[in-house]
Specification:
- The chain is of the alpha+beta class.
- The chain contains 33 helices and 14 strands.
- The strands form six sheets. The chain has a four-stranded antiparallel β-sheet, with no helix packed on it.
- A hairpin with a 4-residue loop joins strand 8 (159-160) and strand 9.
- Helix 1 (7-17) packs antiparallel against helix 25 (515-527) and helix 20 packs antiparallel against helix 21 (448-458).
- The longest helix has 17 residues, at 600-616.
Length: 667
């Protein structure tokens, strides 16, 4: 009994914090030369109207140098209140944040300015302490890693892993012309003869900074496909998004928009937003009625008075209040959801998903709202999103019988991004042959996001499906992100001479400056049979702070692999006291107590930890199996039989549980 079975699960969970079959692989983008950049001032003479619109935009002021340094009072790493000087500001409205330089690192202060109310405030107001990952002095508020790439043009992080320092470079502060059109030096020199790219796919152009994603490389060209430069996140088994695709955590706009009917119909960001000013093209409902005033295919024109059942010109009659509700981040930043959802109190009652009706009528119940939507819209409320949300919610619950209806639905899913989401949800059942078959088929889907999600869902099973190295179609996919995920799934079986392996190393080393990235690199080291190096990597990362116990979980597994199971147990005993509601910690503690134990009392103590884990996660079949092993060691045969039977109810394909059940002596 070891801690090693949990390695891939831990690595996958930590990667999510970083935050997601074509022809021949596309070439890796060459690093952008500093000499290729011209600067936004060079665009003004030939493009005066566009330049003027941009210069007043939030993009232009995404980050800028201050004329005079701003003095801020904040708590330092030692917990003392002292004054700092900020040299740069981030944003212009609805809040302004400030960057404080510490050695080679930029740190973004929690104290921010509200220009409308003309007051200072704390963007978190949740009592973060020095040493926490999310404290302003911590890794979570590090400008070089967390902010700079999207608030500036031509940024390169340049982190030195040996010294833990940065030599970051920027071509120009703010999101400038070249951030979207690409380096323009040659274009300016030859008076426009060298054609710059327009954002042919506007959604792809905006997605790098308006999505929840991980970075694949140090730098990228503005016209790279999203999956060639980033690993995007979509709604999945975590609660990051609501099950109907509405934003929950700080998820930005891209994923929810991709899940909308608008996106599937070909609507892009530029249909509503001016690309240079960033402003909406029309104000109020006129923005929506530019399309919805006339018949669009099968979509009939909207008659506002009869459509909304609210008084004309009232807040309840405004399109965005029903279809783009806001969630406020950083205390002062309300952001519209871009899934263009239909308010559905039925999903509130059944799945706890918020609806726009009760966001306004917060003095009324969801039952009250449901009665009105049913009366007004009748059968129209039974939309495809209801079924999708229920399927995803069932997958999240760990229901072992949820995969057959999910597979059945996938066979007829017509929305490409929802298909990708539901394919990703199949990762809950990697051992089911029918699921593996469906995921293997999805590796060859025409839609790249479906292939991407299929690779992630298969995980280590990919190497079992394609045991001959390099023969997975994902290794030759046209998109780098898919190749990287395929390479990672092969773990210790990966052929290091392949191009995907080299791309994986580039991705892993680029992200090592964050705890999640360090954990991913430690998994790489363990897969290369370097357990002591893996332990050292994680021990350093733990000094950077983390939001939860993920690094402790990874370190315990690494210590066990390095031949130090007792130290792993000591770490877990301490960690479970700090995070008593984490089932994975209790599970690993049970494994550690069992591995280090030799007596009836030791195995009973290990079984107690397993039972605590099951109180928190009763549908985790592997925990039931290990509880059965512990009961078997103590010759508690009826209890062992019950545990193995529970494991097999949850996963009938668990060969270990089948063998263990047969090994129980006749009673």
């Amino acid at each position: 009994m070891t801690l090693r079975d949990s390695t891939f699960v831990v690595a996958t969970a930590l990667l999510a914090i970083l935050l997601a079959c074509g022809g021949e692989p596309s070439g890796t983008t060459e690093p952008l030369s500093a000499s290729a950049w011209a600067g936004s001032d060079s665009c003004r003479a030939c493009h005066p109207n566009e330049w003027e619109a941009w210069s007043a935009s939030n993009h232009a002021h995404a980050e800028k140098l201050l004329d005079e340094s701003q003095s801020l009072t904040a708590t330092n790493k030692e917990g003392h209140q002292i004054k700092f000087s900020a040299s740069r500001s981030i944003g212009v409205e609805p809040l302004v944040q400030y960057v404080i330089e510490e050695d080679s690192k930029g740190q973004v202060a929690q104290r921010a300015w509200d220009p409308k109310k003309e007051e200072w405030f704390d963007i978190f107001e949740d009592g973060r302490q020095p040493g926490d990952w999310g404290h302003w002095t911590g890794r979570g508020m590090n400008w070089n890693s967390m902010c700079a790439r999207c608030h500036n043009t031509g940024f390169e992080k340049n982190w030195d892993s040996e010294t833990d320092t940065y030599s970051s470079t920027i071509q120009e502060y703010g999101v400038t012309c070249e951030a979207c059109h690409g380096p323009a030096k040659q274009h300016a020199l030859d008076n426009g003869k060298t054609i710059l790219g327009k954002a042919a796919d506007a959604v792809e152009a905006c997605a790098p900074c308006h999505s929840r994603r991980g970075e694949l490389t140090e730098s990228s060209h503005p016209h790279d496909h999203l999956l060639d430069a980033f690993l995007p996140e979509l709604p999945g088994l975590s609660e990051t998004w609501y099950a109907d695709g509405q934003i929950r955590d700080e998820d930005y706009e891209w994923a929810s928009f991709r899940l909308s009917r608008m996106s599937e119909a070909g609507v892009t960001c530029l249909d509503c937003h001016d690309p240079h000013s960033g402003q909406k093209k029309y104000q109020g409902d006129a923005l929506c009625m530019q399309c919805h005033a006339e018949t669009q295919g099968e979509i009939l024109p909207i008659q506002p008075d009869s459509h909304t059942f609210h008084l004309s010109e009232s807040e309840g009659s405004r399109c965005v209040n029903c279809h783009m509700p806001t969630t406020t981040y950083m205390q002062r930043d309300p952001r519209h959801d871009h899934s263009f959802s239909v308010p559905d109190p039925h999903l509130t009652l059944e799945l706890g998903i918020p609806n726009a009706c009760n966001r306004c009528h917060d003095d009324q119940s969801a039952e009250w709202a449901d009665s009105f939507t049913t009366e007004w819209y009748g059968a129209k409320m039974n939309r495809p999103i209801r079924k999708r949300a229920k399927l995803l919610s069932e997958a999240r619950s760990g229901n072992p019988s949820a995969w057959p209806p999910l597979l059945s639905h996938l066979a007829n899913e017509t929305h490409s991004t929802w298909k990708a989401v539901l394919v990703g949800a199949l990762e809950a059942w990697p051992e089911v042959p029918e699921v593996q078959t469906a995921l293997t088929h999805a590796l060859k889907d025409d839609e790249e996001l479906v292939r991407f999600q299929a690779v992630r869902a298969l995980g280590p099973s990919l190497s079992e499906t394609y045991p001959i190295r390099n023969h997975s179609p994902s290794f030759s996919d046209s998109f780098k992100g898919i190749r990287v995920e395929a390479a990672r799934s092969f773990g210790p079986l990966l052929n290091l001479d392949t191009e995907p392996a080299k791309e994986l190393v580039e991705f892993l080393t680029h992200n090592r400056d964050q705890p999640a990235g360090a954990a991913a690199w430690s998994t790489w080291l363990r897969d290369r049979n370097l357990p002591l190096d893996a332990v050292a990597e994680l021990e350093r990362a733990r000094t950077w702070g983390t939001e939860g116990p993920e690094l402790d979980i990874a370190l315990a597994s690494a210590l066990d692999a390095a031949g130090n199971p007792k130290k792993a147990q000591v770490l877990l005993e301490s960690s479970v006291k700090r995070s008593p509601n984490n089932f994975h910690l209790w599970f690993l503690l049970g494994l550690a107590r069992g591995a280090n134990g030799s007596s009836f009392a030791d195995f009973n103590s290990a079984a107690f930890a397993m039972e605590k884990a099951l109180e928190l996660a009763p549908t985790e079949g592997r925990i039931w199996y290990n509880l059965g092993i512990l009961r078997l060691r103590n010759k508690q045969y009826p209890a062992a039989k019950t545990a193995f039977e529970e494991a097999l109810k949850l996963n009938p394909y668990d060969l270990d549980a089948q063998d263990a059940l047969r090994s129980i002596p006749p009673q």
